[in-house]
Amino acid sequence: MSYPVLFSKEVIQKRVKELGEQISKDFHGEELVVIGVLKGSFIYCADLIRELNLPVHLEFMSVSSYEGTESTGNLRVNLDINVDVAGKNVLLVEDIVDTGLTISSLVESFKKKNPKTLKVSSLLYKPARLEHKVEIDYLAFEIEDHFVIGYGLDFNGRFRELPYVGIYNGEV
Ligand code: 5GP
Question: Phi and psi of 42, rounded to 5°?
């Protein structure tokens, strides 16, 4: 079974390498706490850190965000990080920014922890769907309003293992 390919393995690899070089340049000589937002970012995160020429401390978080009274919504933390990020360089790594709710809520919550710097990287961004303004410092690809799978992204828990990012067209 295959799905229409949006970004092939080779295209992703090239772009992740470029982003890794950029991040390494920006944080030259400093330690970076990389925080992958589970589950979707695990493959992107694994590839990205291997393109970094920096001392990396890797953590993962699992969160669910939901609309609340505040504009950035509420954040339920299912798995938290194990490190104090005060005074540290922090890079939040997402699979996809859709409405922006998850990442904007995470950014607000991390600002309160007083990191030295706080940056965001996302593999994908769907501008057509954005509702919560968020700055993505290191973005691999902007996409149109498709539901995408592969390279870590799922549909009902399936397809994370696909080596490419594809468009889910309903076939199983
Ligand atoms: P947001 O909070 O930005 O609306 O949503 C972010 C989360 O929704 C992503 O981390 C991802 O889990 C899920 N999501 C949004 N769009 C897609 C998509 O096209 N494909 C997949 N697999 N997940 C998506």
Answer: -65, -35
- pLDDT score at 90: 98
**Scanning the structure block, which residue is given the tokens 């992107």?**
44
Closest CA to 51 of 23, 72, 29, 27: 23
For residue 149, what are the contacts with CB-CB under 8 A and spacing of at least 6?
3, 155, 158, 159, 160, 162, 165, 166, 167, 168
Q: Which two tokens stand for residue 13?
A: 């690899």
Question: Which pLDDT tens digit goes with each residue over 124-166?
Answer: 999 998 889 899 999 999 999 999 999 999 999 999 999 999 9
> Which amino acid type is present at position 82?
N
The CB of 123 under 6 Å from ligand 1? The reply is: no
For 115, other C-beta atoms within 10 Å of its C-beta total: 18
Ligand 1 atom closest to 126 (CA): 16
Site of tokens 């009274």: 69
State the catalytic residues: 98
- Which runs of consecutive H residues, i.e. helices, occur in 8-160? 9-26, 42-49, 101-111
Give dist(CA 166, CA 37) in Å, integer.
Answer: 20
Q: Residue 96 C-alpha to ligand 1 middle, in angstroms?
A: 5
The architecture that CATH gives domain 5-167 is 3-Layer(aba) Sandwich (3.40)
Q: What is the pTM of this model?
A: 0.95
